[in-house]
Every structure is written in C-alpha cells, then in structure tokens.
C-alpha cells in the first residue's frame, strides 16, 4: 500500500483539523523572527502570546532586569505579535526621544474608547502637535498662579484631617488620604467643583476615579486579544472595550458634557470669574487667534480650536494623569520620610525659613529647592509609571540598531533610574542627587518620570506645585513616623503602574505648638 492509499483512508475531518492546527501555528508564530533577523537578541517568544506570560509570571521589573543581564542593554521581545525593542542605552534613548523624535511621535497604546483617545497623551502625529500647542498655554506660570488658592484650601483640609488622626493616635493609610486630596484638587482646579472628597470618600467623583484603575478582567482579556489578533481591533473599538472600564468612563463623559452645556448657558460675567482647566479649554475651543496656511498662493485662515470630543478627552486625561500619579508620589514620599527622619526635619526647616505659617505663594513655593530634591528622589526611587513606549513611524537606524517601522521601543523607566551605572547605590534614598550642581552634570535621560523631549509631561509643573503645597501644610501640623504596620520594604504589584501589594500605613504625630 502506497502513501497515497494511506492518505485516502484518512477522513476529511481529520485533514481539516490538521490544516487548522498548522494554520494556527503559522499564525501564532508569524513575525516572531523579525527581531532575530535584525540581530537583536532576546528571549524566545511563546505561541500567540510572545513574551507576555514571562513578564506576568516574574513581574515586569524583575523580568526585564533578568533579560538585561542575559542579553545586554538592547534586546527584543514580543507582546503577542508586536515586536518590542527594550532600550537601556541612554544615547539611543536620547535619539528616540529628541533627535529622531519626528519618527517616534506616537505611543503604542490601544485605548479603544471614544473621547478618552482624544487626550493629548494618547494622540499622535499631527493631531498630537495641534492639541499640544493649543493646551500648552493653560499650564503657563500665570495660569498656575490662579490655582494656588484652591490648592491651598485642599491642602489645609488634608492637614486638618491628618492632625485629627494624630490626636486620636491612629495610624493612616497614606494612599487613601493623599488620593482624596488629589481628587479634591482636580475637582477644584479642573472643574471648579468643591467635592470635599476628604470628608466624603464615597463621593461619586472619588469612587469612579478609583474604578478607573481597577480595569475589568473582560477589558484586560480584550486587550490581550487585540495583541494576538490585530484584526479584532476595529471590533473592539466599535464595542468600546479598552484599558479603562466602561462604567467610570461613561460617568466622567456624562458629567463633563453636562458641565460644558451648563457653562454655555452662563452669562459672560459668571464665565469670566472661572479660572479652572475646563474653562480654559472652552476658551481655547472658541479662540479666534489663528494661523495662516498658504496653498497654491491662497491664504487660508486656520482657527485654533478643540472639538467637543477633544475638550472632553483633555478633561478626562486630567483625571487619569492627576489623580493616581500625584497620590502615589505623595504616598511614597511620606514612606521615605518615615524611613529617613533626618530628611523630614531638613524639609521642615526649609518650610520654616521660606514660608513659616503663611499660606504659601507661587514664588515662595519655588524657593523650596530641597523639597524639590526630595520629590525628585522619590520619583526616581518610585516612579509612578515604570515603562513608557514609542512607536516607529518608519524604519530607523540608531547607533547600529535597526528599528523597523511599527516596532515599539520600550523605555524601562524604573530600571534606568535604579541602574548603578546611572546612580551610585540606587536603592539608597539621597535627595542630594538632585541638587543644582549634580543635576547639571548628570545625563537628563537617567531621570524620566515626566518623560523627556517634546512629549515631556505637560502637567509636570502643576503636579509639582500640588505636591509641594500639600507637604507645606501637612509638615507644619504633623510628622510621619514608623508604626508596627509600616513595612520595612515595599512589595509591588505587577503592572505598568507602580502600586504596593499592601497599603502603606504610618503613624502621624502632632507638632507641638
């Protein structure tokens, strides 16, 4: 009996199964040799998933550290079928973030939600540049000065609440207290709302903001499917399944829309009294200042404005960027003050010297140089976001590394800021790393919590202002101290946002009058 006779006896359904398995295998491994062909080393990818399971099993930070030891400063991996080039080399990163920025303007993030994707953080190319240019003036020094008063009021309430806990001798979950503080600040500075989240923790704004960072399993699964089966992305977009759960997104979109409609019915006198972020965006929408575009000898007036969707997108982004990251920074900072009481006392003396018991002004806040060093060292040690990425819009060669079009360049912020080649004894908490003389001599790409280059975080100065004013008010009333529940070492969850497995609890002690 020949081979043809053997094949004839195999049922058709068996052949279909074999064919299906072969096709799935070919699909699941397609593209997994792209980086190897370019001479970029890296771990072996798994069928369909690439290297996602390895990152999940050990944790992003630990696994990237292991691979760096094994493969060097530049190596490749795969998110599903997406090729990712992890770059620790500072010279290459400077090219990606600055010199070759026109080829790396976009981020490889699948938001898949209307309005949310209109935020400047998620936009790319021409749209990113246009929106960035329009909203940049809303973060000028003059605009920030208008926000000092509401931030002072929120900070005063925070210090009162912590002082109350100190009088009772109770420990505090610092993330909770700083979380409701940042929510109050966002509500006031972004929308002119007095939410009093600190005394009403179940306030809808706070509740929905927390839920934004507790992404539903369905959404996580859907994003994984989009990596494995890119052809599903239009369907996921149509279903509005993305990195943020639908309930909180819909709540904020409805709320922001209602605010906009209400303001459009207000008289000019009332509107002129508003100085919050939403009002500035609305004015940007209707601004008559324009550019002149010349085409075929004809001058065309191009009005700079934001669409309604773009306004909502920026307002929503304000929540995302302002709530979690600033609360996390204050949480980690308070922990480091507990672990380093001499730093805490030096901070207190600087506050007494430049502010004393007054409401801090914008100019006084800028004199707190040691406080800024403490904040920066906290951000170096515990960056709220541990990695960011850029997507190549074309083939690019940098320092002998070929980055193909559509490949993702991963920037491992946490690892760069903990690399002993960049910072001596990186696990030590030493604010002096960021004094003026040291910073002048250091490579700016070693410090990336706000990014670097044209896509530097647009809200950086507001975040620093909010953090500094909170510290001024709090440290005039209480001191952070160790308690039995304060961890000796922080243990982090796996994920793109740096979060501890257990709440950070500390004692607060009243300052003697």
TrEMBL record:
Compartments (UniProt record): Endoplasmic reticulum membrane; Microsome membrane
| Single GO MF descriptor | iron ion binding
GO CC field: endoplasmic reticulum membrane
InterPro entries according to UniProt:
Cyt_P450, Cyt_P450_CS, Cyt_P450_E_grp-I, Cyt_P450_sf, Cytochrome_P450_3A
Q: Does the keyword Transmembrane apply?
A: yes
Under the heading PROSITE patterns, the entry gives: CYTOCHROME_P450
Q: Which Gene3D superfamilies match?
A: Cytochrome P450
PANTHER family cross-referenced by the UniProt entry? CYTOCHROME P450 FAMILY 3, FATTY-ACID PEROXYGENASE
Name of the featured protein: Cytochrome P450
Please tell me the species this chain comes from.
Patella caerulea (Rayed Mediterranean limpet)
Binding residue positions for heme? 457
| Swiss-Prot/TrEMBL keywords | Endoplasmic reticulum, Heme, Iron, Membrane, Metal-binding, Microsome, Monooxygenase, Oxidoreductase, Transmembrane, Transmembrane helix
Q: Which family does it belong to?
A: Belongs to the cytochrome P450 family.
- Name the SUPFAM superfamilies on file: Cytochrome P450
The record describes its membrane topology as: Peripheral membrane protein
Its biological function?
A: Cytochromes P450 are a group of heme-thiolate monooxygenases. They oxidize a variety of structurally unrelated compounds, including steroids, fatty acids, and xenobiotics.
